[in-house]
Amino acid sequence: METRQQGLLDPEPLTEVDEEMVSEVDLNNTVTDEEREEIMTELTKLEEEISTLRQVLASKEKHHSELRDKLGITPLSELKQNFSKSWYDMQTSVAYKKTSETLSTAGQKTSAAFTTLGTAISRKIGDMRNSQSFKSFEEKMDSTVSNIKTKVGSQGGGGSFEEVLSSAAHASAQETPGNNLSEESGDRDRTC
């Protein structure tokens, strides 16, 4: 008999001697016939137990479902309960508390910034009201309103509103020296 080592990459096929060696080692026959029968019996018992357990489990699941129905526990109510619990858990978490505190601080700072901005705007408007140009504008508006009131009151309701406005504009323009364009337009309005 020829003995040689065959490598994994050896391209030569097995010889007769190699085939005889392989047939002498049977890996599947490590269990005796008695042991095989015991294993088959145990396997059969296990399969019967599994079947019985499945039947018991199905019965228990049915009973569980009936009890839940009697209590009025539906999937929707369970979902609500789970959501409420999750919401509570989230609110009590450290991350939520830190985020809430951070947002609260940011809100306070933003509120303070808006308050400061509002104060600054109010101060600027106050400064603007005290300026000479705003006072001049305010005086002109007061005078125009007074003229309109006088005209409406003196005409006794005989004139149209457009005529009263035109007349008030003409009177206001006459009070301002060097405003010839306003006088001309006022004259045109009266002739129309």
What's the layout of helices and strands?
Layout: H1 16-24, H2 33-71, H3 75-91, H4 94-129, H5 132-155, H6 161-175, H7 180-191
Would you list the SSEs in sequence order as H and E? Answer: HHHHHHH
**Spans of 5+ residues with little confidence (pLDDT < 50)?**
179-186
What is the SS-derived class? mainly alpha
Number of strands: 0
Strand content: under 5%
Individual helix count: 7
Give the helix level as a range of percent: over 70%
Mean pLDDT: 77
Overall body shape: rod-shaped
Biggest beta sheet summary: none
Distance, first to last CA: 139 Å
Radius of gyration: 52 Å
Overview of this protein structure:
The chain has helices at 16-24, 33-71, 75-91, 94-129, 132-155, 161-175, 180-191. It is rod-shaped. α5 (132-155) crosses α6 (161-175) and α6 packs antiparallel against α7 (180-191). It contains 7 helices and no strands. Among the domains are: 35-73; 132-191, no CATH class. Residues 179-186 have low confidence and may be disordered. It has 192 residues and is mainly alpha-helical.
Q: What would a concise description of this structure say?
A:
This protein has helices spanning 16-24, 33-71, 75-91, 94-129, 132-155, 161-175, 180-191. It is an all-alpha fold and 192 residues long.
Task: List its salient traits.
192 residues; single chain; rod-shaped
